[in-house]
Amino acid sequence: MTAPGPAATEPPGGWGPLLEAARDAMSRAYAPYSGYPVGAAARTDDGRIVTGCNVENASYGIGLCAECGLVSQLHATGGGRLTHFACVDGAGAALVPCGRCRQLLYEAGGPELLLRTPEGVRTLDAMLPQAFGAGHLTAQDAAGEA
């Protein structure tokens, strides 16, 4: 699955509010080392918009991507599932999540999560084919009991 049909790609209210929320979150990023602020925003299945920004650390490897903050906010504000996602750089241009963050988003939104990318709207399934998920752990547990 590469791109869903046009009617299925629009979140309630369109992509404008998500992009605005992502840009607002990006303006709060803490990126003193890379100078590369990132903001993310997503719509939830109950209509909320959750956001996140990257937070760097002097110990480079333990910085947090914007998606980490977004998924944390999702759970801190009541949980649910992500339905539409947008991520922007310091200039407000669309970005795609890194591999680690695609895995986080898979857990929070599943393969049908719609992502706004520089090349248009894509499903997470198209961006992370054959993803590892909770179902694999259940299958492993069942196989271990046999």
From TrEMBL:
InterPro entries in the record: CMP_dCMP_dom, Cyt/Deoxycyt_deaminase, Cytidine_deaminase-like
Organism: Streptomyces albidoflavus
UniProt xrefs under NCBIfam families: PRK05578.1
GO CC term, one of those recorded: cytosol
CDD domains for the chain: cytidine_deaminase
Keywords: Hydrolase
GO biological-process terms attached to the record: nucleobase-containing small molecule metabolic process; pyrimidine-containing compound metabolic process
Protein family: Belongs to the cytidine and deoxycytidylate deaminase family.
A Pfam family it matches: dCMP_cyt_deam_1
GO molecular function: cytidine deaminase activity; zinc ion binding
PROSITE patterns: CYT_DCMP_DEAMINASES_2
Protein name: Cytidine deaminase
Keyword Zinc-finger: no
Leading EC class: hydrolase
The CMP/dCMP-type deaminase domain, residue ranges: 13-135
Keyword Hydrolase on entry: yes
Domain of life of the source: Bacteria
EC number from the UniProt entry: 3.5.4.5
